[in-house]
Amino acid sequence: MSMLAGQWNYFLVIALMMIGFYTVIARGNMVKKMVGLTIFQTSVFMLYISMGKIANGTAPILTDAAQKAYANPLPHVLILTAIVVGVATTAVGYALIIRVYESYGTIEDDELIKIIEAEEDEGADA
Fold it and tell me: What is the pTM of this model?
């Protein structure tokens, strides 16, 4: 039991991944899909950050003192960059959703498919 309690962060990551993945797959609303993608993305960030943590690890600043366990800063730096890219990508996604709504009047997948098929049928008949 204590081994499982020590790995609680991985259970949290898996739960968030499944919530985000389910939201993307099961919902037809584009805004809800973007929220699901953001939740999924956050779970990946948490996974990498938790793997980069070393118990009793210190910052990798070299001194004349005895060797200690050093924490690798690379995962944290990479995730910081990924957060910035993720926020920018999410903003672009929401901007595209707004454009779709302005053009078609809906952000539901099934309604958009019907509208686009109807437009294609009108174009084929003409």
Answer: 0.81
